Please model this.
Amino acid sequence: MVSVKTIPDVLNSVGYFGPFQIIFLVLYIGRAVINGAIAFQFQALSIMPKIICKSDRCQLLQEKESDDTIICHLESEEWKFDDSHHNWLIEFELYCDRTYLKGMGTTIYFTGFMVGVSFLSSLCDRFGRRKVNIGLLLGYLTAIICLYHTKTLTMVYLLRFLLGFFHSGQSVGIFTAFCEFTFPNIGALANILCGASFALGGSVASFLAYNNRNWQDTLWPLIILQTIVLCAYSLFCPETPFWLLAKNRNSCAIKSLNFVAKINGKLPLPNDLKFSNCDEGEKQSRNPFSLIMNNCTLRNAIMRLSFAWFTVSICYYALQFNAGSLGDDEYKVMIWMGIVDIPIRLSIVYFASYYGRKTTARWYFTVCFVSLGLCLAPNVSAIYLGRLNLKSIFVLIGHGSGGAIFSLLYTYTSEVMPTLARSTGVSMCSTAARVASILSPFVIILNQISGSLIYFISMACILTSMSLMKSIPETLNKQLPNNIADCEALFHGKSKIEQI
Model:
């Protein structure tokens, strides 16, 4: 009888980065593009049309930027918006005294995200990654299709809530599943690529919304892509061996690994292979949340990491929603945010792989802090480098650095949590981030007090996060902890967590 202690010992045999992991990675990235486009879609659709006249509901007049369409009748007292540029602002009359409803769609989206990440991710730990992820992908697809057909503002907001709800579970559940089929460094790379794809989705949303004649038509490409992701995940992604072993299902874990071996063109594992399991006390605990909160080490780690997640969410989303106050075209800034995000997020792969997660996070926090500080310099909006002013460039760098740290924190948090609480730990931190996301669309209120306030708040949060993260251990080249004993060894510098 062959005996193997842990799953990482046999990943080389079945393939830790072969065709199976590549298929999984493509699905993961495709889902991220969809989520990014949906998350920022209504921000892009909330930009005022280029041609606009006075409405009969208020005294609102903007300069016409094109002479292609003449819609203003000077002899008439009741001018109107250009209906040929049909976005959701026009359809639901979200202007004049109803402008506060513009940001409500995004706030409701992230409220759904916060509720979902608090509830759905724990289901992955309790009922398995595969079943829950398929259900979330199906629910997300259904919500997009319903949004395409909706005709009332109330239903738009309800469906935005559901989209955020299902998005949250997908983000944590699919990431956790991928990490449990490969080594941590590959999981870190995948998550950073996912973050870059999410940023790309934001640019896609801006591009689709720029010249759309019907805001709901921007959903069709996303519906098709989500259908492909759902079908492919159902066919190619089995339950993870880590979760199966945590539930003491040794034979099922072998079948899962043999499925991976088959796709990767490797020899199957023997059926009499035995793996080491989680501790009995963890198996008997039905609540992953209690595993974290009843352990002082994990509880303190989650609290410190949660504030770091809150900080990067403030830096990322508040700056995104503040694009209209930078003195440049809002569409152009949004598209550039997605473009700049991609190389900055990809650059973190090198530093996180060679210098460690903790050191890299500190470096990128510093870049973000300096960039936001430079935005406070006098006359920075009046200096242009190419097509963007200097303030917009500094914001792009700070925004991209925040996004890169966001991607890194997903990996870092999952690498300090035990198997039966890994999704729950990430979801608890993500909940803190969504509090910041919910508040971000209303950054315009802070601008009415002072345009510099958002930068001071972000910089103060960055300094606090850098201080709190000092006690979190480095996880570079360490195995994923399988139980609480492994976590204690990781945090207290013992030798049980081996390097790989």
